[in-house]
Design brief:
Number of domains: 1
Radius of gyration: 20 Å
Number of strands: 0
Helix content: over 70%
Distance between the termini: 22 Å
Order of helices and strands: HHHHHHHHHHH
Largest sheet: none
Number of helices: 11
Length: 256
């Protein structure tokens, strides 16, 4: 198991998929910071670009970035015949599954840390410091990003193992991320209206609140809206369900 995990981790860190996704995320961060700096310097002088705005760029696309990275890297387990080779060498399906899930957790942590460091560097070069974000608040935001990324990475990786690394994995994985993003806009608009008060009540209010409080995809906003216990409970629940369902279905799956 440890030898397999080492090999999987090494393959992940050296993969083109990771470099592609991280390169795209960093380019998006820096492109946003540079364009906003130009706009505020020459078109809207007097306005400031603060570090909070730059650090919020990656959380806004993190669910797509993590999902895409897991798809690009872990679908190769099937397409390149890696899983078949592992089984032929005597590895158990349980070991193969958990090795990949641990690898998914590592992938999400690497992407979150790299994006945070990149965002801080971009903020130093193009920003005017922090507007009102404290060090403790920044740590809370980063911790929430780590937790949510971990849950999404495990969920997406479990889907890949269940679906067999086929093209449908891309459709389902990115489709869920897209639908959850749309749902997040709806929930934010109704729970936190820009004007007036929240008009939801009854079952609809409970459902919207549950989504906002516990669903991992809702914790990529960059600003925690609930205590960390809610984020931990929701993301841990998603991870456990993904592990249980994924392992059961993967062990029954016919692999050629």
């Amino acid at each position: 198991m440890l030898r397999m995990l080492y090999a999987d981790t090494r393959a992940m860190l050296l993969s083109k998929g990771l470099r592609l996704c991280m390169g795209a995320c960093i380019a998006y961060q820096w492109g946003y910071a540079f364009l906003m700096w130009l706009l505020l310097k020459y078109v809207l002088p007097g306005e400031g670009l603060y570090a909070e705005e730059i650090l919020a760029v990656y959380p806004g696309i993190a669910s797509f970035a993590v999902t895409a990275a897991t798809l690009l890297i872990f679908t190769q387990e099937y397409s390149d015949g890696i899983i078949t080779n592992k089984l032929c060498s005597g590895a158990k399906r349980r070991e193969i599954f958990f090795s990949l899930m641990i690898n998914a957790l590592q992938l999400s942590a690497v992407m979150s840390a790299a994006a945070q460091l990149s965002g801080l560097l971009a903020a130093v070069l193009f920003g005017e410091g922090f507007y009102n974000l404290t060090l403790a608040e920044m740590a809370d935001s980063f911790l929430e990003l780590l937790i949510a990324s971990a849950a999404v990475a495990v969920f997406s990786s479990a889907l890949i193992m269940i679906l067999g690394g086929k093209s449908v994995s891309y459709i389902v994985g990115l489709g869920i991320a897209f639908l959850c993003k749309l749902a997040g806009f709806e929930v934010m608009d109704k729970l936190y209206p820009t004007s007036g008060r929240c008009m939801l009540s009854g079952t609809k209010l409970s459902l919207y609140t549950f989504y906002d409080k516990y669903i991992p995809y809702s914790h990529f906003g960059g600003t925690p809206r609930w205590d960390m216990a809610a984020a931990l409970a929701g993301c841990l629940g998603c991870i456990l369900i993904s592990l249980a369902a994924g392992l059961i279905l993967f062990r029954k799956k016919e692999i050629r």
